[in-house]
From TrEMBL:
InterPro entries: AstB_sf, SuccinylArg_d-Hdrlase_AstB. Pathway: Amino-acid degradation; L-arginine degradation via AST pathway; L-glutamate and succinate from L-arginine: step 2/5. Keywords: Arginine metabolism, Hydrolase. Substrate binds at residues 20-29, 111, 138-139, 215, 253, 366. Catalyzes the hydrolysis of N(2)-succinylarginine into N(2)-succinylornithine, ammonia and CO(2). Pfam families: AstB (PF04996). It comes from Marinomonas maritima. It catalyses: N(2)-succinyl-L-arginine + 2 H2O + 2 H(+) = N(2)-succinyl-L-ornithine + 2 NH4(+) + CO2. This is N-succinylarginine dihydrolase. The lineage of its organism: Bacteria, Pseudomonadati, Pseudomonadota, Gammaproteobacteria, Oceanospirillales. Transmembrane segments: none annotated. NCBIfam families: arg_catab_astB, PRK13281.1. PANTHER family: N-SUCCINYLARGININE DIHYDROLASE (PTHR30420:SF2). Belongs to the succinylarginine dihydrolase family. Its EC number is 3.5.3.23.
Length: 448
């Protein structure tokens, strides 16, 4: 029998993880700028979550971090000389630019790409489009390396199709799977791909947020759906409520999460909730009674509580039919309204039967919870067997990566440390070794 499963590929936190306040519209990023970070703890918190999921029986992969500070970008922007000179000049003349090219933001792999499983695509392959992340300069430099790492992980073109990112311009602002969910009966069957956008680029009369940017456009999602060869009647689009973007919900995965036959979302998440429900149920077809719309009312959990706790930035994982576990960050347990809601949810008769809490404080302080840290890839057995096996989490890889973090990572980093030429050298040594551990080949510019 062809049993398909959902794999989660988490971003391994890079050695330059820091808080620089780079993401306008992301409340945690802005509130924690100027704080010092702990890259070693950040990487270990992520590894602990990955290992726990692997131990629970889920297929768990690892995506390598990018080379940071990114000297090639600084050269493109006019800095020259040796790498040490480039760094020194940038630190002196444009420290905020240096912070931007040093961010470890590629750890949030929900934003790495949009993935369409083979059950949904016209050619029966798994399709990947790296997200251009054009709305934030520090993230707009990720997609090329992301594409290279995805290709080194999902190598076999019989099974996997890799596209380039969409044009890097606001009209096609694409934040990848942070705004994309798939509903299905079994992971190998044809599913419904649900794309959520912040605004329409080519329709000036459409509603838009006023204070914070809409990072993702409808036109970007439509282009991804065309490229991936999705069947139009299996695609649903919905606009995010501009008011929640203005409150700090910069990605839809801060206020909704879906899996198989369950959509778990906040009452205020969408501009037109009734339409969203109707469109999903129409696409689902018969057996509509098996589709769970779990709407959390504002009276139980406010939008502010969603943003503070990251209740919906959780991983909704299937252990079997109608049996799901929700992976939430520690902040949910510390928020009385959210914790009370979660306790009533698991006691009720939704498919969500258990909640597991993880400490991801280092990532959360930049606005990244459990769901931001993972890219979901539904895979058939044949596709799973075609993945680079050195990227899959198990006891051996967990041990190796923890030792590697202990050897190379600092336990304190301030924005000012980004100018330290030793940090650049340390990071390159670390990544060079990582490409051997994970059998990636030469994926970084400094290796070429
Ligand atoms: N899906 C979660 C993404 C979080 C990410 N934060 C950041 O890039 C903050 C980086 C900083 O401020 O140092 C973002 O906003 O895209």
């Amino acid at each position: 029998m062809n049993t398909a499963t959902e794999a989660n590929f988490d971003g391994l936190v890079g050695p330059t993880h820091n808080y620089s306040g780079l993401s306008f519209g992301n409340v945690a990023s802005l509130n924690n700028s100027a704080r010092s970070s702990n890259p070693k703890a950040a990487a270990k918190q992520g590894l602990t979550k990955m290992k726990a999921l692997a131990d629970m029986g889920f297929v768990q992969g690892v995506l390598a971090p990018h080379e940071r500070p990114h000297i090639p970008t600084l050269r493109r922007l006019g800095f020259s000389g040796s790498d040490a000179n480039v760094l020194e000049q940038a630190a002196k003349q444009a420290p905020k630019l240096l912070a931007a090219v040093s961010s470890a933001s590629c750890m949030w792999t929900a934003n790495a790409a949009t993935v369409s499983p083979s059950g949904d695509t016209v050619d029966g392959r798994v399709h990947f489009t790296p997200a251009n992340l054009v709305n934030k300069f520090h993230r707009s430099i990720e997609h090329e390396t992301t594409g290279t790492i995805l290709q080194a992980t999902f190598k076999d073109d019989k099974h996997f199709a890799h596209h380039a990112a969409l044009p890097s311009v606001d009209h096609f602002g694409d934040e990848g799977a942070a705004n994309h969910t798939r509903f299905c009966h079994g992971y190998g069957e044809q599913g419904i791909e649900f794309f959520v956008y912040g605004m329409e680029a080519f329709n000036n009369s459409g509603l838009r947020p006023a204070k914070f940017p809409a990072r993702h456009t409808l036109e970007a999602s439509q282009a991804v759906a065309r490229r991936h060869g999705l069947s139009p009647d299996q695609v649903v689009y919905a606009q995010q409520n501009p008011a929640v973007i203005d409150a700090g919900v910069f990605h839809n995965d801060v206020i909704a999460v879906g899996n198989r036959n369950a959509h778990f979302y906040h009452q205020e998440a969408f501009l037109d909730t009734a339409q969203m429900k109707q469109d999903l149920l129409t696409a689902w077809g018969d057996r509509a009674s098996q589709f769970h719309l779990i709407e959390v009312p504002s009276a139980s959990v406010s939008v502010q509580d969603c943003i503070q706790s990251y209740l919906f930035n959780s991983q909704l994982l299937s252990r079997g039919d109608n049996d799901m576990v929700l992976i939430v960050p520690g902040e949910c347990e510390n928020n009385p309204a959210v914790w009370a809601y979660l306790n009533s949810l698991v006691a009720g008769n939704s498919p969500i039967n258990e909640v597991k809490v993880f400490d991801l404080k280092q990532s959360m302080s930049n606005g990244g919870g459990p769901a931001c840290l993972r890219l979901r890839v539904a895979l058939t057995d044949a596709e799973r067997n075609a993945i680079n096996p050195s990227t899959l989490m198990n006891d051996a890889l967990f041990g190796q990566l923890n030792d590697w973090v202990d050897k190379h990572y600092r336990d304190e980093l301030h924005e000012a440390d980004l100018a330290d030429p030793k940090l650049l050298i340390e990071s390159r040594h670390a990544l060079d070794e990582l490409t051997q551990i994970m059998n990636l080949g030469s994926v970084y510019e400094f290796q070429k």
